[in-house]
Amino acid sequence: MATEQETRPGLWGWINKRLPAEEFLRSQLLDYYAPKNFNIWYFFGSLALLVLVIQLLSGIFLTMFYKVGETTAFDSVEYIMREVDYGWLIRYIHSTGASAFFVVVYLHMYRGMMYGSYKAPRELLWLFGMFIYLALMAEAFMGYVLPWGNMSYWGAQVIVNIFGTIPVVGGVLVEWIRGDYAIADATLSRFFALHVAAVPLALILLIVLHLVALRQVGSNNPDGIEIKEHKGADGKPIDGIPFHPYYTVKDIVGVGVFLLAFCVVVFFVPTFNGLFLEAANFEPASAISTPDDITPSWYFTPYYAILRSIPNPRLGALAMLLAILMLFFLPWLDRSPVKSIRYRGGLFRFFFAIFTVSFCGLMYLGLQKAEEPYVTLARICIVGYFSFFLTLPFYSGREKTTRVPQRVTFHE
Amino acid sequence: MTDAGATTAVAETDLNRRKFLTVALSATAGVGAVFTAIPFLASWAPSERVRAAGAPAKFDLSKLLPGQMTTIIWRKQPVYIVNRPQELTEKLAGHEAQLKDPQSAESDQPAYAKNEARSLRDDLLVLVGTCTHLGCLPKQRFEPGDASLGADWPGGFYCPCHGSRFDLAGRVYNGSPASLNLRVPPYRVDGTLLTVGEDAATTGAA
After folding, report:
1. How many contacts, defined by CB atoms under 8 Å, are there between A and B?
2. Rounded to a whole number, what is the distance in Å from the CA of A73 to chain B's nearest CA?
3. Which one, of A149, A154, A162, lies nearest residue A183 by Cα?
4. pLDDT digits (tens, 9 = 90+) for A82-137
5. Cα-flanking dihedrals φ and ψ of residue B117, to 5°?
6. ipTM of the shown complex
């Protein structure tokens, strides 16, 4: 408040008279107190931000050499891979980054579910996160279409056709999305504009809102207790530590470990045995030849497994939509006042384990061919997945929880 | 676990160790940043395809009669090739006072073209046909005593955009908006084959 009186020397002083730079840095880094019991699950938020920067940088450079258009796209990607200096590296960074984004985001979301970070007063934080997840899925889907390989084409064909299952408007909607009677040049061009400009802007806006919402309520922690309830004489939470230097340094370590793993993949296994870059996409798109197995990228396969396990296309699409929507409603489905799984009852732990196994199961099964025993197993996993959400409202209000501590504990 | 231990440590921080760690980390991160920047910056260099298209261009000199000029493309630029007859080459001497850079000290040409004829051979002139003012293509005015350029015009080039004048060695006249002589690209002659983009001394990268 008395910052007008402070005179800082030199250039920094000149800037601060005109922009609250130091004030901002101080309030966000030095005066922001985070719980001191963050564990390994708390790396993934900052890592997600890092991957965003990696994708923006590598993506912008790819846009300098990529040529959108059904006759030029595929060749331009080969041009990048073979003829642009270090083009192969920029391309592999971007494709690996896409998968890395989902690894990080899924682990980030899982932490939220484990520790009840979606509960009051963090419901809006969770919702912004869910919108980020949706935007990310749209971005990844459209990005995959851009190389115009055979899997790009047929994957787009399948996903866009799902919108056709919507009653009444389905047919018109699909044609409107495509801009043509099949996936074509018109579709590619609009996906390019959305992928390069529109969705990244929306993502950045949503991420800013997500961070502002976090700053407003403060982070949750593995014990699920509110550190702001116990403040010291200086007005700071006694279970909190300033974000800088503790968590800036901790996050730098996380960044180092992440980049090591990232670079191993980029330089040694960029295709990741067909998981990150599918073999079928190394052939140009062909309207008259479908790949043997049309599977989406691994990060979509849980929902894909749900979609194709239900024989009715309309119901399958609905089930897939509901599976994602369930997550939006989580703060209100869960009635327990206890946040962290550490102190919750046996029923929650049981169903949460079922959810985990089911989601991972669906992810694996979605990568397999649509035949037995995978189809039946997928149906079992669907039941397991939904059971977590649908039983929550019934038992969570009165489950037998253990005593939540007043102060944070340290486990390892 | 008591939290009393958290506050006492503050007084004992080893600031030297902290400074060392900060500097070491920053230096390592800086090295990492440089290495990361390299592929992105390098990607802007002309790609393989562009380098292939920029390979030396060839021309058969036997096709050019004395006094004739032709234009070929090398690295997307126009290159003038002139078969310079004896009587026009003789006119290169004698008007050094009217030139801005008669010795080609400031201008761009290979070592073997830093002479009066600005060429490997007197009867051959190879120039990049880009005016050194703002880049238009100078027009050929090889006739001595040309009507619009004056009775003592020895033959050369006239740029229509802003009026720069060059002699038949590409040297710029005083009073021209351009300040440098026309560029001479690297080239070599083998028999009647002219190769622009390559010196005889170093084959390849020009």
Report:
1. 38
2. 16
3. A154
4. 999 999 999 999 999 999 999 999 999 999 999 999 999 999 999 999 999 999 99
5. -80, -10
6. 0.86
